[in-house]
Amino acid sequence: MADLPPLAPVPPPALRSSLPPEDWDACVDAWVALVGILVEAPQQQFVAVALKDESACTFLTSFYGQLASSVMPGLQAGPKAPHLRKLCFLLTRRLLLEVSTPPTDLLDWRFLGDLCCCYPSSSALRKLLSDVWEKHQTSIGPSLDKAKSLVIKQLSFGNPSNNQAVASDIRLLTVLASASPPCGQVLVTGSDFLDTLSDAYQAQKREGLRRVLVANAYVGLTSLLKGPSPNLSLLLDHLFSLKAAAGVGSPKTKREPTLLSDLVCSSDLLARLERYLSANPQKRGQDLVSSLRSYQSESRVFHRRYQKQARKSDKGKGRAPDISGTEELHAHRLSLVTQVQDLFPDLGSGYIVRLLDFYGDNPETV
């Protein structure tokens, strides 16, 4: 163990593209061998090496950063890629749970977000994040607070040329909060972050960015109903604040899309809240849901893209459907599903179809 060479970081895409295939295969073989040795090492030896050698942390941050960004096909394809991904997950788990003070970079919100992007729908990942939060929340919490401040600054600055970077950061936080409800609760603790999302929704007319904002707000708010310590009071406070900002129930009701109208029309937020209140009745919450249901009905006209088309009963009358057009549509949708599954093979087809419905058949946004 003491004589192991350091783990080299994953080269940047520009350098990777210049490597001959045999050189890249040699890199993958070396990573598999070295990471495998670390994963199998006895705990005492592993901890001793981890405390002295920073190369494992550097390798993992570069590996997950590039794997999550989908710019390194060599990390996703090939017979050795799944095995390397598994070994990296196991090494990450050991570093986060067996080392008393893990490397700071591994507790950073960007690393944890990249990690979530690489193992979607993984129960092992959710268990790991739960254990890591319980053990290191005093380090993860401040990192998330910095992320909130960064996003608030980016959105408040309002530079259109920076929209892509802002959307990328928010999307990463959304993925992390979805896999780790405690992280989502940190995002919506206090009103500044959600207020900024609401203001940005009104200021930004771009459909893509608005969807990113809605998804983040939804994940953050629903996280308040999850975990061992749900916070219904804070959720209701946020909804009342959004309701006031939209002027719901007053002559100043905004006759335009708002973050709140998008949330109640495009997600199951109200349904989740109703289910929670049915088990934990509270008049304040029930009255709020009732008023938001009315607001939902009034706002549907602004969010038709989310509404499912009602099926008409076929009574054998009228023109026969355009079979060729339908087949073309199905083939197009199948190609989109395949694109997403190429990057995230663990996702089911049905789940991807729902994501495509939500994001307007844009696989890049998904």
Keywords summarizing the entry:
Leucine-rich Repeat Variant; mainly alpha; 366 residues
Describe this structure in words.
By secondary structure, this protein is mainly alpha-helical. It has 2 domains: 1-107; 140-305, Leucine-rich Repeat Variant (Alpha Horseshoe). The protein is built from 18 helices and no strands. α8 runs parallel beside α10. The longest helix is centred in the middle third of the chain and has 35 residues, at 123-157. The relative contact order is 0.06. Residues 306-312 and 317-332 have low confidence and may be disordered.
Shape: elongated
Counted up, domains total 2
Q: What's the number of helices?
A: 18
Helicity level, as a percent range? Answer: 55-70%
| Cα Rg | 23 Å
Number of strands: 0
CATH architecture of the largest domain: Alpha Horseshoe
CATH topology of the largest domain: Leucine-rich Repeat Variant
| CATH level-1 class of the largest domain | Mainly Alpha
Strand content: under 5%
Uncertain stretches of 5 or more adjacent residues = 306-312, 317-332
Distance between the termini: 42 Å
Structural class: mainly alpha
Sheet bearing the most strands, described? none
